[in-house]
Amino acid sequence: MGPVWRDRAEKRLRSLALAAGVLLAGAAAAATPRAPDVDALLARIDDLYRSKGSVARLEITVVSPRTTRTMRLAAWTRGEEQVLVVVEAPPREAGTATLRDGDNLWNWLPRIARTIRVPPSMMLGSWMGTDFTNDDLVKESSLRKDFQAKVERRSEAPPGWWIGLTAKPGVVGRWARIELLVGDDDLPIEERHFDRKGRLARTMRFDEVRTMGGRRIPSHMALVPEGTEGKRTEMRYLEVRFDAEVPADTFSLANLERSR
Amino acid sequence: MTGSTLRLAWRNLWRNRRRTTLAVTAIGLSVVLVLAYDSVLRAYGDWMTETVTGPMLGHVQVHAPEWRKDRSMDRTLRDVTATLSALRRDPEVTDATARVYAPALAAVGEEGFAVVVVGVDPAAETHPMGLLAGAPALPAGRSVLVGRLLAEQMGLRVGDSLAVVGQGADGSLANDLYRVAGLVDTSVDFVNRQGVLMALGEAQTLFAMGDEAHELVVRGRDPARAGELASHLSALPALRGLEVLDWRTLSPEMVGLIELVGVAWLFVLVLVLVAAAAGVANTMLMSTHERTHELGMLLALGARPGRIVRMVVVEALMLGLVGALAGTGVGVALVAATHRTGVDYAALTGGGPQELSFGGLRWSLRLYPTLAVEDVLRVVAAVGLTSLVAAAWPAARVARLQPSKALRG
C-alpha cells in the first residue's frame, strides 16, 4: 500500500469523525427538548378520553382510612354532553345508574325504583361515595378554553413539562389554577387542582399507559383529595371503545329506568 | 351616729317637701329604669343560654375525634347503647341522647333536594328542651318528620312517600322510601330548612351503621356549670378517647354575646349614678344654702363643725336611699308583674316578626324579666355611694362656715 492510499484513508477517517461529531451534536440537541406547543398539547389532552361516542367498563376503588370499596361500572358517552354510568357490582348497588344530559344529572335507584335529579346545590357533593364530585361528571371544563396556559418548568423524573394553567377571567369554575405535568410522550402524568383561595385541593395521577380502543391512554387514575388523610379514589379502565356508535336514546330517562 | 342625728336629718329633709319629693322621684325613677333594664338583660341572658343550649346543643356533646371537622359519615361513636346507659346512670347527668347526622338527597317526585337526615331517639327528644318538643309523633317504622321550610320548598305533604338517598358509613349507597308522618318547626334553622328526622334505629339501618351514632347530647342541671360537667364526663371510662365538649366551647360566638349582656348593666348603672348625684347634690346645696343662718347659729351655740357636716351627709344619704327604696319597690313590682307572662318584644316593636333568626337558631321574641337579689343590692349600694360623694360639696361648704359671717349673711 502506497502513501497515497494511506493519505486517503486518513481523510476518510477524518470525515467519518466529523460526521460522527455532527451526529453526536444532533443527539445532544435532541436530549434537551424544546418546550412543547402548549395549545396543541392541551387540545390533545382535552380530547384524550373524548370521542363522538364511547363504551367502557371501569373499576373504581374508594379507599378511606377505615374502609375500601370497589365498584365495577359500565359507561357510555356520546359527544361531550351525554354520559350514562351503570353500576354492575357489588350486587347491593348493581343497577344503580347516573345519567348526565347537558347540565342535568339524574340518579336511578333500582332498590326504590326512583329517578332523582341531583340539585345544583349538591353538584359539589360526592358522586356515588367516591372522591369525584357530581360536578366532575357534569362540568365541561376544557383546559384549552377555560385556562391561560404557560409552560413553567422542565421535570426530569419523570421527564416532561409542568404547565401552569390559570383560570381565564370570567370563567366560573371550581379551580383557579391547575398545574399539569405532561410527559414527553404527550400524556398527562399529574394534575394538581387549586381552589379559588389558591389552596391545593386535590391531585390526580395518571399511569399504566396502555393502548386501549385504539388509543394510547393512561388506563389508571388516582384522585387524592387534600385535607383527608388516607382518602383516595382509583379508577381503572377495564375496556374501552372509542368512536363507537352509541344510539341517542341510550341517554333518556326511559332507558335509565329500564331494568338493565 | 346618734339617733338624734338621724331624727334631725329626717326632719330637715322634709322641711321642703316639694324639693325633696322631686329629688326622691328622680332618683326613684332612675332606679326603676335600671331595675327594669337589669331584669330584661337577665331575661335576655337566660333566653340566649336557653336557646343556644336548647334543642340542638345541650350542655355537653360527645363526638368521635375529628367528626366536627369533616362530619364524615364513618367517624362514628361505637357501642352507643352502653355509653348512653353509663351516662344516664351518672348523678350529674339529667338527660342523654344519641343522634345520627347524614347528608342526603331527598325527593318526592323527580326533583332531588339536599337534606340532612337526623336520626333521633323520639322518646328522649320530646321533652321541652328536645329537638322534637312540640313536634308531631314519629311513628315506629319507616316514617320521617320533615322540617317545615324544607317541606314547603319541596312541595311535600304529610303522607307523601319520600325517597332518601345517601352514603352509608361503610361507603355504600344508602337509599330507601319513607312515609312523611308530619312536619316540624324547631328553633334550629338547619332542621327547619334541611332536616329529615327519623328514629335512630331507622337511620342506623339506612346508613349501614350498627350500634353507632355521631353525637351524644348530654344535659346537666345548670348550663352555667357545663364546663365542669364536660370535664367530669371525659373522665368516664365509657367516653375514653372521645371528644367531650361543653356548649361554651362548641358555640364560642354565642358565649361572647351572652357575656356582653352580662356587662351591659354597667352602662345603665351610670344613668342612675348621674341622676342620684344630680338630685342629691342639688337638693343638699340648696338646703344648706337656705340654712346658712341657722347653721351659723348652731356653730355659734357651740355645735362642733363635725356634727353639722355629719348631719348634712346623713341627710344626703337618706335622700338617696329613700329614692332608691321607692324605686326598688316600684321596679320589683313591675318585674314581678311581667315575669310570669313575659314581655312580647314583637308587640313592642309594632307588630314586627314574631321571632328572629340568628346564628342558625330561631329566637322567640318573648322575654321573661327576672331579677336577682344582687341586681337590687347593686343599685341601692350605687345610689347610697353616689349620695355620699354628692354630699361632699355641700358638706365641705358647711365645714368652712364661719359662724360670724354665717349669722350676718
Q: From the helix content, strand content and strand pairing of chain B, which structural class follows?
A: alpha+beta
Number of domains of chain B: 2
| N-end to C-end Cα span of chain A | 87 Å
The pLDDT mean of chain A sits at 85
Query: Roughly how many Å apart are the termini of chain B?
Result: 30 Å
- Side by side, the strands of the main sheet of chain B go 2-3-7-4-6-5
Which sequence of SSEs, written as H and E, runs from N to C of chain A? HHEEEEEEHHEEEEEEEH
Return the string of H and E elements of chain B: HHEHHEEHEHEEHEHEHEHHHHEHEEEHH
Which outline of chain A best applies? globular
By DSSP, the count of extended strands of chain B is 13
Poorly predicted regions of chain A are none
Computed over alpha carbons, the radius of gyration of chain A is: 25 Å
Describe this structure in words.
The complex is a heterodimer of chains A (260) and B (409). With 260 residues, chain A is of the alpha+beta class. Chain A has one domain: Clam (outer membrane lipoprotein receptor (LolB), chain A), CATH 2.50.20. Chain A is built from 5 helices and 13 strands. Chain A has helices spanning 3-31, 38-46, 134-138, 143-146, 253-257, and strands spanning 53-63, 68-78, 82-89, 97-101, 104-109, 114-117, 147-155, 160-167, 177-183, 188-194, 200-212, 215-225, 232-241. A 13-stranded antiparallel sheet of chain A has the order 6-5-4-3-2-1-13-12-11-10-9-8-7. In chain A, β10 and β11 (200-212) form a beta hairpin. The longest helix of chain A has 29 residues, at 3-31. Chain A is globular. The termini of chain A are far apart. Chain B has 409 residues and is an alpha+beta fold. In chain B, strands 2-3-7-4-6-5 form a 6-stranded mixed barrel. Chain B has helices spanning 3-13, 17-57, 67-70, 80-89, 122-125, 148-154, 189-194, 200-206, 226-234, 247-250, 252-290, 292-300, 305-339, 345-348, 373-399, 403-408; strands spanning 60-63, 95-107, 113-120, 143-147, 161-167, 173-184, 195-199, 215-219, 243-246, 343-344, 355-358, 361-364, 366-367. Chain B has 16 helices and 13 strands. Chain B is 55% helix and 18% strand. The model of chain B has no long low-confidence stretch (mean pLDDT 88). Chain B folds into 2 domains: 3-53 and 254-408, no CATH class; 60-219, no CATH class. The interface between A and B is medium-sized, with 28 and 21 residues.
